[in-house]
Amino acid sequence: MYTDKVMDHFSNPRNVGEIEDANGVGEVGNASCGDIMKIFLKVEDNIIKDVKFKTFGCGAAIATSSMVTEMAIGRTIEEALVLTNEAVAEALDGLPPAKMHCSNLAADALHEAIKNYKEQNS
Ligand code: FES
Question: Is-catalytic flag, 58?
Answer without folding.
Answer: no
